[in-house]
Write a structure and sequence with these properties.
Blueprint: H1 10-17, E1 33-34, H2 36-45, H3 49-64, E2 69-73, E3 76-81, E4 85-92, E5 96-101, E6 121-126, H4 133-144
Length: 151
């Protein structure tokens, strides 16, 4: 068998290159996992223009918080500080990408999107409404310095 390349079935090849299924609103269904790989798989599976937003968000967060921890839980990328919890999550909806700041009421200025949860605030990013990267970086930096959520 040495020197021969193993053959894989057409079904296995299709599954290896298939994108994950999209849940309600176009949110990618990605298995729970820790580290950069599941987050990158989520970003790659974000539909249409949202994938570019995901790449920009991820790069901004990594640039702003060196050594940031990453995971995908509940089909959403999470960003945090090891030992301190998660400070930010991302989720895809039909018409926008939602950035959740878990201690958003402590940020200045407070992000615009209200939540049913007392401390959480959102920034919704729409296709034709570019976000202010400097303001977002400031919120990310502030959020990373606050106690995170244990999830």
């Amino acid at each position: 068998m040495a020197g021969k390349t193993p053959k894989i079935s057409a079904e296995a090849a299709k599954n290896a290159t298939a994108k994950p299924p999209l849940l309600s609103g176009g949110n990618p269904q990605i298995a729970k996992g820790y580290g950069d790989a599941p987050v990158q798989a989520y970003i790659a599976a974000m539909p249409g223009w949202k994938s570019d937003v995901g790449r920009r968000l991820d790069a901004l967060i990594v640039r702003t918080v060196p050594g940031v921890s990453k995971a995908v839980k509940w089909n959403s990328p999470l960003y945090g500080i090891e030992g301190q919890g998660w400070f930010l999550g991302v989720h895809v909806f039909t018409n926008y990408v939602k950035v959740a700041f878990f201690r958003g009421m402590s940020l200045r200025p407070v992000p615009p999107g209200e939540s049913k949860q007392k401390e959480v605030r959102y920034l919704n990013i729409h296709e034709d409404d570019p976000f202010d990267e400097a303001q977002l970086a400031d919120w990310v930096k502030q959020a990373s310095q606050l106690p995170g959520e244990r999830m």
